[in-house]
Amino acid sequence: LKLTSYPARGSSDQIRLLLAETRTQYEEINISGSDALKMQHSIPFGSGLPIWEEDGMRIVHASAILRHLARKLNLYGSSEREAVQCDMWDEQCNQVLQAFWSADFIQNVIFGQTLD
Questions:
Q1: 25-84: per-residue pLDDT in tens?
Q2: Is 47 helix (H, G, I), strand (E, B) or coil?
Q3: Angle, helices 12-21/80-105, rounded to nearest 10 degrees
Q4: Nearest to 12 by CA among 112, 104, 101
Q5: Where are the alpha helices (DSSP H) in 22-79?
Q6: E-strand spans in the chain?
Q7: Per-residue model confidence (pLDDT) at position 94
Q8: Chain-centre distance of CA 33, in angstroms?
Q9: Residue 43 confidence (pLDDT)
Q10: Is the pLDDT of residue 103 over 80?
């Protein structure tokens, strides 16, 4: 089990939290932006990071990885209704995270300040 991502906060954080919560052992590879560009031709859909590798399978896109792991680790509900609720919460959390990232970006880039 291997997670390849950037060594910064971002879309991989939810994956790391799920893996920590379930005490799942995995290898994490952190790569720079220039190294990510070099491997882009070998990434499914030419997507960026993160990449989850397991049993010869490569999964891209943080939400797809998160849903896969939730299903595999029995955290995706026991019915279709519960799975849909998990999807809705995932999307809601993504919207909240996007708002925080946008606020951080605005503070850093426009105002030259950091959010502490």
A1: 999 999 877 777 777 777 777 777 899 999 999 999 999 999 999 999 999 999 999 999
A2: coil
A3: 130
A4: 101
A5: 33-39, 62-72
A6: 2-5, 27-30, 51-54, 57-60
A7: 82
A8: 16
A9: 79
A10: no
CB–CB of 104/88 below 8 Å? Answer: no
What is the pLDDT at residue 106? 65
Length of the chain: 116
- Specify whether the CB–CB gap between 58 and 43 falls below 8 A: yes
**In one letter, which amino acid is 13?**
D
Residue 3: phi, psi to the nearest 5? Answer: -115, 120
Single-letter amino acid code for the residue at 96: V
Q: Which two tokens stand for residue 34?
A: 């220039």
Tokens of 7: 């060594």
Range with top average pLDDT, 73-77, 91-95, 97-101 = 73-77
Inter-CA distances, 89 with 30, 79, 85, Å: 27, 15, 6
